[in-house]
Design goal:
Length: 220
């Protein structure tokens, strides 16, 4: 679970913990310099990272490609809180955006790419640097798991803090699959296996099936 604070509502002295500052009705123009990794550009490593990310997203079923914030909002409008999708970012400095249905409606969070890693975007110096991941699928899986754990332990406390600080609770619960790209039965079985074991490579399965599991080692 993340706490998302609207850009124009947060005072400069506000304290935030595990929160993201995002827009509530689409992606506003970026008003901060783009972070550039201090590491030298390594084209092969970047190519491998980006290729793996697109490969996993295309297999996931919840990557919607080149749609606008408005279209993402329409798709999420009738869904339950915590439903999410990943789409191409409309901002030229970002590859992807995470669109989520919150208790106040659809919210968009840009996904920053730097140093062969992906992380959720943030704009406040008071916000600690967020975790980064090799692929977008790993990033999303982390926050889905975090949301589920925190919901069990701190649901009432987080709701109280959100009301007090005028923040938006950003929970990732379930993906919204894109029409006509709903996962195949094989992929759904793969997800089920991944959810019940941390070592699928040790299962007594034919080699080709093991390779199929390794192509998408995620639970969402």
């Amino acid at each position: 679970m993340l706490l998302c604070v609207p850009r124009i509502l947060i005072p400069s002295s506000a304290m935030v913990t595990g929160e993201m500052i995002v827009t509530s009705n689409g992606e506003a123009p970026c008003n901060q310099p783009v972070l550039v990794s201090a590491q030298p550009w390594k084209s092969f490593e970047n190519l491998r990272c980006i290729h793996a990310t697109f490969q996993h997203l295309n297999a996931s079923g919840w990557y919607w490609g080149n749609i606008s914030a408005s279209q993402a909002g329409d798709a999420l409008a009738g869904t339950a809180e915590g439903t999410f999708l990943v789409r191409d970012s409309s901002h030229t400095h970002y590859f992807f955006t995470l669109s989520v249905k919150t208790n106040r409606g659809p919210t968009n969070v840009r996904i920053e790419y730097s140093g062969n890693r992906f992380r959720l975007d943030y704009i406040s110096s008071t916000c600690p640097r967020l975790l980064s991941f090799p692929t977008v699928s790993e990033l999303v899986q982390h926050y889905v798991g975090t949301s589920r754990r925190k919901e069990k332990a701190k649901q009432d406390e987080d709701a109280t803090e959100a009301l007090k600080d005028n923040t938006v609770l950003l929970k990732l619960r379930q993906p919204l699959y894109k029409p006509k790209t709903f996962p195949t039965l094989q992929h759904l079985v793969r997800l089920t296996i991944n959810r019940h074991t941390n070592c699928p490579e040790q299962l007594p399965l034919p080699h080709l099936l093991l390779l199929y599991l390794q192509d998408y080692p995620f639970k969402i």
